[in-house]
Amino acid sequence: MGCLLDGNTVSKVPSMEIPNKDKIAHFTFYFVFSIVWFNYIVKSKPNYSKIKLTIYIFTIASTTGGVVEILQYFFSPTRSAEWGDVFANCLGSLFGLLLCLTLITKKK
Fold first, then answer.
1. Which residue numbers delimit the VanZ-like domain (predicted)?
2. In 3D, which of 27, 9, 6 has the Cα closest to residue 18?
3. Residue 53's domain spans which residues?
4. Is residue 13 part of a domain?
5. I need a surface site. Which of 17, 33, 48, 80 has the fewest CB within 10 A?
6. What is the SS3 assignment for 45-85?
7. What is the value of pTM for the model shown?
8. How many CB atoms lie within 10 A of CB 85?
9. d(CA 93, CA 30)
10. Cα-flanking dihedrals φ and ψ of residue 47, to 5°?
11. How far apart are CA 17 and CA 69, in angstroms?
């Protein structure tokens, strides 16, 4: 439900304006989310195919990001759905997973 909260209801704290901070937040969340999920599954199922795991996590993360945007579009009067958010989600997940694969490959 936190994703449906309106940022305008939170008291304003003076801050500097960062261009595209919304997209940076989306990217960062999905980057971290994918890394955490990847590492958890690798530790709990070490013999699972890393490529299949990467595809699985990316699919789930991308679908989740898309569904959240669709829900915002149809059910939230104070939030807007943006394709840019979906793109940032997918990019964050992809970069996080590529980092995981790179680090696993270097360990071998």
1. 22-102
2. 27
3. 22-107
4. no
5. 17
6. CCCCCHHHHHHHHHHHHHHHHHHHHHHHHHHCCCCCCCHHH
7. 0.81
8. 20
9. 5
10. -90, 0
11. 24
The answer to whether position 5 is within a domain reads no
14 belongs to a structural domain: no
Over residues 2-26, mean pLDDT: 73
The residue type at 57? I
Give the separation between CA 100 and CA 5, rounded to whole angstroms. 32
- Position 2 pLDDT exceeds 60: no
Residues 15-29 have pLDDT tens digits of 778 888 999 999 999
| Tens-digit pLDDT profile for residues 37-88 | 999 999 999 999 999 999 999 999 999 999 999 999 999 888 888 999 999 9
Is residue 12's pLDDT more than 70?
no
Number of domains in the chain: 1
Amino acid identity at 65? G
